Amino acid sequence: MNINFKYYIVTIASIFLAIGIGIVIGFNVNNNEEIAKQQEALVKDLDKGFEDLTNKNKDLNEEIKIKDRDLNQYEKYIVANRGDLKNKIYTSFIGIISTDIQSDNAQEVKKAIQEGGGYIAYDITIDKSIFTDEAKKLIGDKVNSPINSPNDLSLALINILTAQDQEQTLRELESKGYLKINELNSNYNTFNSVALQGTLSDEQQDKDYQEFAINMGKNMKAKNMNTVYVRNSKDNDNMEKQYTNIKVNTINNIDKEIGKMIFIMLMSDKNISGNFGRGGDSTVAIPAINIGNE
Length: 294
Description:
The protein has two domains: 1-80; 88-276, 3-Layer(aba) Sandwich (Rossmann fold). Helix 2 packs across helix 8 (257-268), helix 3 packs across helix 4 and helix 4 packs across helix 6. By secondary structure, it is α/β, with parallel strands linked by helices. The protein contains eight helices and seven strands. The chain starts with a helix and ends in an 18-residue tail after the last strand.
């Protein structure tokens, strides 16, 4: 009897193949069960995380509602008692310096000044051409000091604004197009407060213009001027952040009635300081007041 080893080899190979298939199937079944367990645990973690975030969001929304309610209460109180702010700044002689030709914020400031019983010393708008070599030389000659930086330029302009008999100099600068005089009181140089306004448009986003604007605030404050930067609620906050950094008071909603009320409050009391309005870098909505049992 002849033994055909070919059949034995095939049989043995089949057995090992079956064993291998069984091992693979068994491994996959066990592996799938492990993956399923991991997925189930992950889903549970995600569900818990989502639930936690949902609860936290509810808490934050409730907190926002409470703060909005309190803020509205304050605002209503101020507007209702706005008569108390009339003639509140009758001793304030306020200069307005703008670094944004397109903005109407200066008009909003004027409304606040009028409502508070204050006076406008001057209203001027700075043109970017003031940074040309010709402008810097002319201004430097007027103050007998060279202009080598935006800070030098801000100091020179402040010297012109605070000195006597410099109206002709201001008119000459206007005739050259370096600034625009929108209003000028005969006693403009005796101003004791200043409102700065203006955001930078895309074409004004250069270092010199920003440094000049910020140094105007810093140097006015150093001269003990009651200094505040204002913008309206729709302006970008690119300059507000920088004024905040040098501790100049800011108002980011001068176009609103509450913003004008805050302006009067700041002008009437140099001890009030901070960043006011809604959103932006404002730390508080309005200066602290006593609203009694309201």
